[in-house]
Amino acid sequence: AQSVTQLGSHVSVSEGALVLLRCNYSSSVPPYLFWYVQYPNQGLQLLLKYTTGATLVKGINGFEAEFKKSETSFHLTKPSAHMSDAAEYFCAVRASDRTALIFGKGTTLSVSS
Amino acid sequence: ETGVTQSPTHLIKTRGQQVTLRCSSQSGHNTVSWYQQALGQGPQFIFQYYREEENGRGNFPPRFSGLQFPNYSSELNVNALELDDSALYLCASSVQGNNEKLFFGSGTQLSVL
After folding, report:
1. Which tens digit of pLDDT belongs to each residue from A73-108?
2. How confident is the model at residue B99 (pLDDT cuts 50, 70, 90)?
């Protein structure tokens, strides 16, 4: 069975500071991993995904994530936070039957000036 | 190219009633998935439709049912509404064989009183 744990329901950073959102997964098959962002009153938007190959994945808006199999982690980072990055972030793993994504509970990112 | 659209945006129902939510998929997408997002939680997979048939289902009771039409639009029906059904219902479209790239609508906020 697949599952995702996001450590920290709320992360606060200052504008220009490093953003680090943590995600650990459990998967019985080689994982496909994702980060989605949700702005208020909107649906989810794909930030980046890992399927196979290069373990450092770059996404939109300057975000990147590194797949670490030994640590079963897929943490999301951004070198310098922007006010516009304030949103809810969800880590997800694809289900083994390949029809669904299994999401974590999400991390709310707040950015202060 | 139109995105995923959902209607209505908000809905208030009474316990025991029935509700139908609608979704128009993104142009060129033949697969539709429905997710339930309770307050403070990540989205949970309800089911997926491809070629007008359900081809994957999450841990939801049979009173949650769906339809997909020849134009790939979809409906989610919920019978005998319960208070716990109050949530944001998200529709996502994709191309079969590429389920990892989901395009989400903005959702329907359902409140059950």
Report:
1. 999 999 999 999 999 999 999 988 888 999 999 999
2. low
> Nearest by CB to B101, which of A4, A42, A46?
A46
CA distance B80 to chain A (A): 25
Q: How far apart are CA B92 and CA B87, in angstroms?
A: 16
Using DSSP, state whether A47 is helix, strand or coil: strand
- Distance of alpha carbon B16 from the chain centroid: 19
Angstrom distance (rounded) from CA B78 to CA B61:
10
Beta strand A44-50 with A33-38: parallel, antiparallel or unpaired?
A: antiparallel
Residues in chain B: 113
Omega of the bond leading into B8 within 30 degrees of 0 (cis): yes
Q: How far apart are CA B103 and CA B88, in angstroms?
A: 16
Residues 6+ apart with CB under 8 A from A55: A66, A67, A68, A69
Q: Which residue in this structure is represented by tokens 């070198």?
A: A79
Check A44 against B104: CB less than 8 A apart: yes
